[in-house]
Specification:
Layout (H helix, E strand, L loop, with lengths): L7 H24 L3 E6 L2 H4 L1 H16 L3 E6 L2 H10 L6 E2 L2 E2 L3 H24 L5 E5 L6 E11 L6 E15 L1 H9 L3 E5 L1 E3 L5 E3 L2 H11 L4 E6 L14 E3 H7 L9 H13 L4 E6 L5 H7 L6 E4 L5
Parallel strand pairs: 1-2, 1-11, 2-8, 5-8, 11-13, 12-14
Antiparallel strand pairs: 3-4, 6-7, 9-10, 13-14
């Protein structure tokens, strides 16, 4: 009879895995039954290994009783498709100028190509993902977004028309809730539609925060390509109160795409979301690390009484 014996290194490995599971247990209990809205995009979506680990994370969340909702971006993929069609991409204040030809391509890439790919990836892990698009069945009502900029020479503010770029104004929440109650994982393309049936491209962070606020989600997670909110010494801020988040957003060291992300978190929390986190989607299993470990990752914004 042959016996297999574990080496000391193997034993240490399995003991570490067991301790990790034990550490996760109270957080699993804490989040069970919670709606968590996750904005998925950037490097996490473009890298095959990271997209695979993300799909497994979402499947796991559903298996342990968490109710995830995914809102995805698609800027690089849209840019590549436009380039292939010899259409120049122009940005104003970080927003893609979207004419009638461009919005058709945006809709095709977001609601068909990317959405289907994410649904398929999550479904392959055993999760019952369902593809949705904000412009279908009037899920997300939108209005045109006009951008205000100051002329450098005169300092006069001008309103710039950037085409079919919108902001959400209403949500048919029950459609999403029906899918959740049916045991499905909604995967939502960030598009909206107005009363005249014009389709609008909407920033994915904005849509995720808007949906989280309307559903009073327990938590909002924004996956980014940075480690989180950095202070003026470029060190990660692990936790911020809501009032401190409102103060820090005006600081000079908060620039570029981080300002609107912080504002999205603030707006969602003012609508009833309990916590929000800006985290690094470039880290494998970042969602699991954030939800089920003691310190989490990224920057978490919490209400004052939870500090």
């Amino acid at each position: 009879m042959k016996f297999d014996f574990l080496s000391e290194s193997d034993q240490a490995y399995f003991i570490h895995k067991a301790s990790t599971l034990v550490e996760a247990l109270p957080y699993i209990r804490q989040h069970s039954g919670d709606i968590i809205v996750i904005k998925y995009g950037g490097h996490a979506m473009g890298d095959k290994k990271l997209s695979s680990s993300f799909a497994k994370d979402i499947g796991l969340l559903k298996e342990i009783g968490i109710l995830p909702i995914i809102v995805h971006g698609g800027g690089p993929q849209i840019g590549e498709r436009l380039k292939n069609k010899n259409i120049d991409s122009k940005f104003i204040e970080g927003l893609r100028v979207t004419d009638i030809e461009t919005i058709k391509i945006v809709e095709e890439v977001l609601s068909k190509d990317i959405n289907s790919e994410i649904v398929s990836s999550i479904s392959s892990t055993g999760g019952r993902a369902i593809g949705m698009s904000g412009n279908i069945n009037n899920l997300i009502t939108a209005t045109k977004l006009n951008v205000e900029i100051k002329e450098s020479d005169s300092n006069i503010e001008k309103i710039i028309d950037i085409g079919f770029v919108g902001k959400p104004t209403d949500l048919k929440s029950q459609i999403i809730l029906n899918h959740i109650e049916n045991g499905e994982i909604p995967v939502i393309a960030p598009l909206g539609i107005d009363k005249e049936n014009f389709i609008y491209n909407i920033n994915a962070d904005t849509v995720a925060g808007f949906i989280a606020g309307k559903l009073k989600a327990s938590k909002l997670l924004l996956l980014t390509d940075v480690s989180g909110i950095l202070d003026d010494n470029e060190k990660l801020i692990s936790t911020l109160s809501l009032s401190d988040a409102k103060k820090i957003i005006t600081k000079n060291f908060i620039s570029g795409g981080m300002q609107p992300k912080i504002k999205t978190c603030i707006d969602a929390m003012e609508q009833g979301v309990k916590k929000s986190t800006i985290l690094d989607g470039r880290i494998p299993h970042s969602v699991i690390l954030e939800l089920f470990t003691e310190h989490g990752i990224g920057t978490q914004i919490v209400s004052e009484y939870e500090i």
